[in-house]
## 1
Amino acid sequence: MGANPVLGVFFHWLGGLASASFYVPYRGVRNWSWPVFWLVGGVFSWILAPWLFALIKTENLGTVLAATPARTLFLCYLFGALWGLGGLTFGLTLRYLGMSLGMAVALGLTAAFGTLIPPLVSGELITLAGTSHGLVILGGVSLCLVGIAIVGWAGRLKEGDGVEQQGVAEFDFRRGILIALFSGIMSSCFAYGLAAGEPIRQLTLAQGTDPLSQGLPVLVVVLSGGFTSNFIWCLYLILRDGCLPEFTGRRGHTAAAPPPLLRNYALCAVAGIAWYLQFFFYTMGESQMGRFGFSSWTLHMASIIIFATLWGFMLQEWAGSSRRTRAVLGVGIAMLVLSTCVIGLGNYLGSL
């Protein structure tokens, strides 16, 4: 089956919708500490769903992974673990900034760092700045940083409006921005993990896997790395805060009352599977982009930002804020979406 970029864009937007929506079920979890519900959801996101979908949709998964060079497995796992730190702090970003503001800032930074870090590490950044397509890319990154500053300004205005608690129970602008900065840098490692998994793609295609599903075995390895870093940190917090009883329906040291066990596990399962589906559809979209594959990352970021903004307004995160604050937020979001398009254009010009 040949490439179909139109279908690829559709899959990328489905992935963006899944990513922007995953945190919504967590809002319904009751009397579970943050590391408890994040870890439960993560088991579905990073272990159960990747293996289940890969086993169903690909051929001879065990044979493919056994034949994969050790270096490839290591790099995919390592980048996954680094991305896991970004995913871990991404959850905290949403906790302190809310859906629309948190995702806009964190993903804008992810788009920027995902573009800048590779040429910076390789020493090609100066060379890149000397080319027309490089200047377009750097211009897109600059737009991204301006957009982030404008969105941050909207957050400050929201504080000034006196509605910081509306829709976001633990709103903390300063803490959220600092966490978003770290999250944006580390989350960009996910793209590197997928790129490092190219040998796995070729092996699974050789086994007769449908090209649409060629990225699923890569996700098994990358997301296992993400699970490792998240598991270690969440376990530390759970043990430190005495939250272990919450897993069995008892009240932990930080919980106000015994948790509704079935409800919480069900909501975490939905959230975790939604989190995974963003990658499921991302790899499907990437497989269809053909020579436009460079645009996959920017399409993903832009779609998440747009859907997250819609969720933020639906969940009343900006209710009560002034018209000026909402206008500034709209300008910032538009700037972030425009920046991802400009970065994609620069990558396209560089591929010609």
## 2
Amino acid sequence: MSIRAFKRDDLPAIFRIYDSSKLDELKFEDTLFTLLPLENDKVRLNGLLESDIYVYEDLNCIVGYAAVYGKEIRALFVSSESRGKGVGKTLFVFSLSLIQEQAYLYVVRSNKRAKQLYQEHGFNVIDTFETTYNQEPVVAQKMVRTVLAPKQRG
């Protein structure tokens, strides 16, 4: 098991993980969403590709990935067969280690499992707003983690 920088050859695995996982983050919404495959979602794909992407490999198979853009954790997806094994948490902690300042991310309000992980690492909701996924409304939240300056830590 290891985390490494993304290579262009990793795109098919990333598409597979995203496409099999995206609707899971929306499953507690009242709306029934239809998947817009990542390779057809120009906005999300462009946002991903302009980020620093890291993949989690297990036995030479990519089972998860994360993307960081500046201070934002822009993506964190784990294949369904690898969930509950610490892959997401490991990718998340790795992503946080790359951000020296105040980190932030966006999450679907009803995605309690993800929000719990983020809160365990010091993130708090600072904004709630409506956005869309595949032209359907969804309520999202911005979460921020404040990093204390060295003299404030202790």
## 3
Amino acid sequence: MGLNVFLSGEIHTDWRNEIETGCGDAGLDVTFASAVTDHGASDDCGPAIMGAESDKFWHDHKSAKLNAMRIRKGIADADIVVVRFGDKYKQWNAAFDAGYAAALGKSLIVIHGPDHQHALKEVDAAALAVCEHPKQVVDMLRYISNGTLPA
């Protein structure tokens, strides 16, 4: 069973690579999509493509809308959406992506540490699975794909 998985959330660790590598090593038929993870490119894409803005609000506004097109397409095309909340920053965009995925009825997996449990209780309630580590996502995708448990 082939799966389309959209990876959303924090961009400061290599969790996406851990999941992609783990699924590849397990021989799973999974296609991944993601938001742009180059922080500078993501922040500056709007003005770089549509013209500079002297006001930071409009600079961010252009970039946010351009990024939203990519993210909406990725979530809409996904069978499963994985959203990771990191420890260092508040990822309001990740919470928005989780809500958007839930509103579309997408299967949602949320990753975060125990320190975020209370703050993300509503996001967790919308998810079909909540875990703490990328390896757990690989194990979930293995189970969903072929019904086998981790060795």
## 4
Amino acid sequence: MRGMDHRLLGRTGVHVSPLCLGAMNLGGPTPEAEGIRLVHAAMDAGINLIDTADVYHDGASETVVGKALADRREKVVLATKVHGRTGPGPNDLGNSRLHIMRACEASLRRLGTDYIDLYQVHRPSPQIPIDETLGALTDLVRAGKVRYVGCSTHPAWMVMEALAASDRHGLARYVSEQPPYNLLDRRIENELVPLALRYGLALIPWAPLAQGVLAGRYQADGALPGDSRAARQPGSIYAERVTVRGIEAGARFATLAAAHGRTPGQLALLWCKDQPGVTAPIVGPRTREQLDDVLPVLEMSLSGEERAACDTINGPGGVLVNFHNTAPWMKTPIV
């Protein structure tokens, strides 16, 4: 073990751990008390970047995170997101100024804090001019309610459009993008990663374990683990990501991981963590056992031999399973 190296969050001076704790399970399949313990265990191990969203379990995830940080708020970089539907009204979603301002106040209340370190636009709203969205975010930064802003699951051209608008109009600049990225879906390497490297944008990938497919959770017989999201939500976006092709690749990957003395979950996360441009992949454990499996990755380094072996599963820029299935802008077919 060589110890953990902190990384800069894009062009900011903020240092973050090379793994981010994702709170999507908290307040849902992970009960509140256990969720609080997970947050504390991750922080005790050195993770100081925590990511949630206002739509996770109708805000319950933010509430659990807020309770977990009640006596240790200053020790973390706290990230949440805005965009998704938060009510029945026509203005209860999207990236308008009206929704962003309302949603930010609601997130602050649930999180039990008076500021958000990284406020991210969860998905694009193509019909809303980017200067309206950035203008609202800029006002939140100037009011001290938000420290930095970023985006999630945006195409590279939209990220570039936002960076250009920020420079042109003197608006808050995205410091990060949060894309889906794992060994089964490497499409961000074609445009987004080069953009991030050129313009100093942090990448905080979600689904680095390919929703458990690369962690060895799914078997070739097609039976789904009863506690998996794919099993709990048949026909959902999560179920769509569990394919025969992906499971077969996952089986080959598990063999590869064993040959290198890693668990499949460790190697999948390590591969993502040590790819060019990546700042901190998001690990979203449901249980303490899942968290404990991947915490050693904080102090691991991917070897050249491991990198080359992983490329035999799916080569650079390639795709075996569609993890952009919540992004209508992605048109690449999966054949």
